[in-house]
Specification:
binds phosphoenolpyruvate; alpha/beta
Length: about 240
């Protein structure tokens, strides 16, 4: 099955209005599109400007979270409908930092994914084991349980496998471990959605850099990457996009 690779940048709580300069550099280099899909997910207040600046550039703009409700008394939260209305095309959900910092569990991630799909956004659902879970041999069971609880009822999602211990640490699993996990995730999404599961893009995330991206993206069932730190600098991000 041919899947268009996706390279998604998660800016986390980084960036100020003048960070648009990095986006403009990316837009200039990619010149309206290329061999893979590219997504940049800045903090909420930058989304509308980034959408405006990236029209016809081939770069999609996404968010890093949304609420599960359509609207209402949820101070500080942002609805999927508003994200879609200002032009976002995707939303990262269930990132390990949100699971850890905000106590987000699988059922909540699933509810957010359903809301995102209803609003026309592509959910990028993150799963991944901690170092302790890997050391105790529970990595696969952990990830499969997260998937089971977090995936929405329909298949229009992207899944990002991000071992928690590899995020921002410079440490990356062995290629064979990434391959085994992505194979297990592929089986799980095909089990869940049937043939539609074969079209789901599975991203690897965790310390992907220009120097290791090509090798990681060559692994079977790795359909691109979710990139944190290296997505903040256009040169690094573009090198990773080129590797996809
Ligand atoms: C992330 O947090 O999604 C991530 C992959 O971060 P980094 O690339 O910095 O490890």
């Amino acid at each position: 099955m041919n899947r268009t690779p996706l390279v998604a940048g998660n800016w986390k709580m980084n960036g100020l209005p003048d960070s648009a300069a990095e986006l403009h550099k990316m837009i200039g280099a990619l010149k309206g599109g290329g061999h893979c899909d590219v997504l940049v997910c800045p903090p909420f207040p930058l989304i509308a400007t980034f959408v405006h600046d990236s029209v016809d550039s081939g770069i999609g703009i996404g968010a890093q979270d949304c609420h599960f409700a359509e609207a209402g008394a949820h101070t500080g939260d942002v609805s999927a409908a508003l994200l879609a209305a200002v032009g976002a095309s995707a939303v990262i959900l269930g990132h390990s930092e949100r699971r850890a910092d905000h106590g987000e569990g699988d059922a909540l991630v699933k509810a957010k994914a359903e809301a995102a799909l209803a609003a026309g956004l592509m959910p990028v659902i993150c799963v991944g084991e901690t170092e302790a879970q890997r050391d105790s041999g529970d990595a696969e069971a952990t990830v499969l349980a997260q998937l089971d609880g977090s995936l929405p009822d329909s298949a229009g999602v992207v899944v990002a496998y991000e071992p928690v211990w590899a995020i921002g640490t410079g440490r990356v699993p062995e290629n064979s471990d990434i391959a085994a996990m992505h194979h297990a995730i592929r089986q799980a999404v095909v089990g869940r959605y049937g043939d539609a599961g074969r079209a789901i893009r599975l991203l690897y995330g965790g310390s992907v850099k220009p120097g290791n991206a090509k090798e990681i993206f060559a692994i079977e069932d790795v359909d691109g990457g979710l990139i944190g730190g290296a997505s903040l600098k256009a040169d690094d991000f573009l090198a990773i996009v080129a590797a996809a």
